[in-house]
Amino acid sequence: MYLEFRFSKRQVFSKYLDFSSFDRLPLSLPFGVAGLSLEVLASCNGLLLLIKDLRTYVLWNPSTGAFREFLGLHQNMSIGSYCRLYGIAYNATTDTYKIISASQFGNSREETIFTIHDCSTWTTINQTGGFLYYITRNQQAANVNGTPHWLVSHELDSGCVIICYDMLYEKFEEVPKPEWADDVTVLELKAHKGMLCLIHYKRGFADVWVMERYGKQESWTKLYPYVACSSDFGVRPLGVTHGDHVVMEVEQRKLEVYDPRNRVFSMKNSYTYPNSGFGAITYVETLVSPVG
């Protein structure tokens, strides 16, 4: 499923899209939103993390309507001034969830605020420092098997690094990227078909790669080569249809179906509010409870 938020005058509109039918249906929010401020930050096993009014966080299951609001992430700071990353981590052994986030001001790793929120005890730990990476732009995590992944860098002028949050050892780990990615700057990390997915944007097109065997650098495989793309971050794979065609977000404004065999697009839906980072997300329908 694909969920988007749009704002019009004094209302927030939310809609979801079923990839099998491409029906576009309104979705009511079970919680109030004041000030027309709402962002969708992360997804894992049917749970969505949102922030409303720039301070109140919501863990919500759109399939059941259940939600829980809480405070505590990055308290007393203007998050709009920071580069942020968010993710939801799942531990299958203990059947528990944690919300992982980091906010970085300017170009200083020392001013990074790193936060872990335990969804079982509803306690939050905030700490400054100790985060060894630069966050170059706002990111929703690429979640693979309950583990959130992000693109960061060791230095401002260095290539990207893929990191994940390991719930077992409760620390960040690095995941091998393709060898060719050392000197590439325009990349995006997603999850596709249950695999880690790296999109390499070039002039006029993009290559979509997947890690077929998790953790194995040699398993990075070019899945969709030469996808037409007029700008950086211009195509994002969201899911697959029953015919194994690919649902793509194109130019951050419309949804199209991509035929990888013939390398052509057909438009299925369009919308006017651009998804520049935290405006839309994909999720699966589950009965997982957000209230513990």
TrEMBL record:
The UniProt record lists the F-box associated beta-propeller type domain at 41-232
Q: Taxonomically, which superkingdom?
A: Eukaryota
What Pfam family does this protein match (any one)?
A: FBA_1
Name recorded for this polypeptide: F-box associated beta-propeller type 1 domain-containing protein
Q: Where does this protein come from, organism-wise?
A: Striga hermonthica (Purple witchweed)
